[in-house]
Specification:
- The protein contains 22 helices and 29 strands.
- The chain is of the alpha+beta class.
- Helices cover 35% and strands 19% of the residues.
- Strands 1, 2, 6, 7, 8, 14, 15, 17, 18 and 19 form a ten-stranded mixed beta sheet that branches.
- It is elongated and about 125 Å long.
């Protein structure tokens, strides 16, 4: 018992010492730079240097404009110190003389009419209001402690700069610079002495009546200049103006971007200098408005566009140059939805990534043969998945180049199944599609057909890796007082060789003609790599592509999810993509350089071997030391579309030529636009009735010699087949647009 009492007495004696130690630690502990140095409201600037938008401070909810102390006119500093704290440069954060004077006046009047607070104490109330006690007397004591702490940790100039920039002003402004701009329409450096006195008066009288303001103004004017001011009408008119201030341009075409960057950098303050081009956004918006007038009859309501600027030199960044979230930000039809960052069904836009992965990890090349034939893949819960192509047909054996260029679904699903859904899922996450937060089995092999969704911004950044030799760069969108603002991190998605092969395929106009026809919006008089995508039921239409300098992505559709009327990515988004690419390219004629370690070789479209005499071929990039399995000798010029080789030319489809396109003229009757069909059968085969032909899967017609006939034009792909003993020996197609 005695020992306990001794311990208690010792503890009681230590309490004062502990309090003193705690107080010392509190006073000397460094201050949070975020509280004292917060730069007020956020101002977003375009790449051209124009102010796009101002956001209120996330801490105070007021609008501020931070200025360094040396940019304040000397008379402003003198006036504020005279008005608020004439011994500011001499006291330790609190002024005993002012406090005693204030106490005397309050007791004499029987109410609180003066607080005796210093500039430092007022700054404490602004910066530490959320941690100060609610009780009046406890709060005053805490103010003194915090004020002393500010004085210990900061210089007088630092305290004065923070105060001048953060003291509350009229019209929800924070600081004298913001007040000068809002009230007098000029920067703080350009205001007159009378206007400076008015600002100093508003520090205490920002909600006062005109009468009180005039009295306070006259008193301060006399203290500062020793003279009276006569007519105050000009000052009064501006100080008590009821005119509202807009902090954004309602006609701006960058409103979606302004909200976007604020969401990306929630803690931002001060000025943000961005990479966005206000001029480019305006020009793209005009393109969208014009094209949507044409698309609206097809139940298309909206469009989003992203433009990225590729790094031109080593060490440069991938930059966001344009972001259009919707056709009209102010539209009642969800105009404020930012479609460029919304997750939508991605269609075929992810196919280049599965083939690029296969090139690097499975050893495939653009001339590798892939089968476009019916498949059934086991999926969870004992089911099977049997993908279909958009034309509901199967093309048989074809090269990887043609499978990707013509966007065949079945080969892509076959390839993702060969790679493994889990592995491809991980690859997409690395590629920036971080929204895929379900188990890979949830998406299944359909993940390569866009069932997991994507945003336009994600797609454009991922495609930039193909354009940048396989390197995925962080997306640089601006810089604020804390440094660079970027999205994502650097990754190596593909080898440089595979990235070049993908670029070569996606820019191959001839390879895509079988699916897209000879006239389409993906053709340019210069080199452009592009890929389209159309979601199920035509709810989303995409075109994403790049030149050697820019990546452009376009989405069209309806934010409501309503179906469009057969609007595909190639046609709906493609027409806008065509114009945006031409606009950003200007008079340039960009080309994709062939790496020094590559050579171009003719590859047979049917066999994937080096082309022989009469072979229909693609020009394929091969590495210098890359060898093929041989030279084609068996396709006999029938091309990739022949389903078997017949050795001797026993039958031939002479007209239409393979892949030939016909365009329907709406001003001419269809009966006058019939298409001639010529089929040749060698005389040495006789007329034994073993041969027949069909057009578009109609009933087979006996073939007993050369056939010359005509067929009515049917829009789309039309196929002619020749049979021998019921088996297809020759197949060709032509297009009608």
């Amino acid at each position: 018992m005695v020992k306990i009492k001794i311990i208690l007495r010792a503890g009681v004696r230590l309490i004062p010492l502990l309090v003193i130690v705690a107080l010392i630690i509190f006073l000397i502990w460094p201050l949070s730079s975020h509280r004292l140095g917060n730069k007020g409201s956020i101002r977003v600037f375009s790449q051209e240097g124009f102010l796009l938008r101002e956001f209120s401070s996330p801490l105070s909810g007021a609008y501020g404009l931070w200025q360094d102390l040396d940019r304040f006119p000397e008379f402003i500093i003198r006036t504020v110190v005279t008005a608020e704290d004439k011994r500011f440069f001499y006291h330790p954060g609190f002024d005993p003389l002012a406090m005693m004077r204030s106490a005397y006046l309050n007791i004499r009047e029987g109410e609180i009419i003066s607080g005796g607070s210093t500039i430092t104490q007022q700054l404490v109330r602004v910066t530490y209001d959320d941690v100060l006690p609610a009780n009046r007397y406890a709060k005053k004591f805490a103010e003194i402690l915090f004020a002393f702490r500010l004085e210990v940790n900061s210089s007088k100039n630092e305290i004065l700069e923070a105060y001048l920039n953060r003291v509350p002003m009229k019209f929800n402004q924070s600081g004298l610079p913001a007040g000068a701009r809002r009230i007098f329409g000029r920067d703080i450096e350009l205001i007159s002495e009378r206007e400076g006195i008015a600002l100093a008066v508003l520090i205490r009288e920002n909600q006062s009546s005109k009468e009180n303001f005039e009295k306070r103004f006259a008193s301060l004017m006399m203290k500062v200049s020793g003279k009276e001011d006569g007519d105050l009408s000009d000052i009064i008119e501006k100080v008590f103006s009821t005119e509202k201030s807009n902090y954004r341009d309602s006609l701006s075409k960058t409103l979606h971007f302004e909200d976007f960057i604020k969401s990306v950098k929630v803690s931002a303050s001060g000025d943000i200098n961005t990479t966005i081009s206000g001029n480019l956004n305006n020009e793209i918006s005009e393109i969208i408005s014009a094209e949507l007038k044409f698309l609206q009859p097809h139940k298309v309501e909206n469009c989003s566009v992203i433009v990225l600027k590729l790094p031109e030199k080593k060490g440069e960044e991938l930059k966001l140059a344009a972001m259009i979230g919707s056709e009209n930000f102010h539209s009642s039809l969800s105009g404020q939805v930012n479609g460029s960052v919304a997750i939508r069904q991605a269609g075929s836009t992810l196919k280049p990534f599965v083939y690029g992965y296969a090139m690097d990890h499975l050893g495939l090349r653009s001339y590798s043969i892939i089968n476009d034939e019916p498949i059934a893949i086991s999926i969870k819960e004992g089911g099977t998945y049997s993908p279909k192509n958009n034309d509901l047909k199967f093309w048989g054996s074809l090269t990887l180049r043609e499978a990707l260029a013509c966007s065949r679904n079945v080969p892509a699903v076959y390839m993702v199944n060969r790679i493994g859904v889990n592995q491809f899922y991980k690859f997409l996450n690395i590629s920036g599609f971080t929204h895929l937060d379900r188990e890979p089995s949830f998406y299944g092999p359909g993940i390569v057909l866009g069932t997991g969704g994507a945003s336009l911004l994600q797609l454009c950044r991922a495609y930039s890796a193909i354009a940048s030799g396989g390197n995925l760069y962080p997306l640089y969108i601006g810089k604020d007082s804390d440094g660079d603002i970027v999205l994502g991190k650097r990754e190596k998605l593909f080898s440089e060789e595979s990235a070049f092969r993908l670029t070569h395929i996606l820019s191959d106009r001839e390879a895509r003609r079988r699916a897209f026809g000879t006239r389409n919006f993906l053709d340019f008089p210069f080199q452009v790599a592009s890929k389209t995508g159309t979601s199920k039921d035509c709810r989303d239409a995409w075109t994403v592509g790049f030149t050697n300098r820019y990546v452009v992505g376009v989405w069209v559709g309806n934010f409501s999810g309503e179906r469009m009327n057969n609007v595909s990515g190639a046609w709906g988004a493609g027409r806008i993509f065509q114009q945006v690419i031409r606009h950003v390219t200007g008079r340039e004629h960009p080309v994709f350089n062939i790496p020094d370690n590559f050579r171009m070789v003719k590859i047979c479209r049917a066999t994937g071997l080096e082309a022989g005499m009469g072979c229909r071929y693609f020009m394929e990039p091969l590495e210098i030391d890359e060898t093929l399995d041989g030279k084609c000798s068996g396709c006999a010029g029938s091309g990739v579309y022949a389903l078997s080789s017949i050795g001797e030319e026993e039958a031939e489809i002479v007209s239409p030529a393979m892949g030939e396109s016909f365009v329907i003229d709406p001003t001419i009757p269809l009966k006058n636009q019939q298409i001639p069909v010529v089929i040749f059968l060698s005389n040495r085969n006789g007329t034994n009735g073993n041969y027949s032909y069909s057009i578009n899967n109609n009933n087979a017609i006996p073939l007993k010699g050369t056939v010359k006939t005509v067929v009515d034009p049917v829009r789309g792909e039309n196929r002619i087949r020749i049979y021998r003993n019921g088996e297809v020996i020759k197949s060709s197609f032509f297009m009608v647009e």
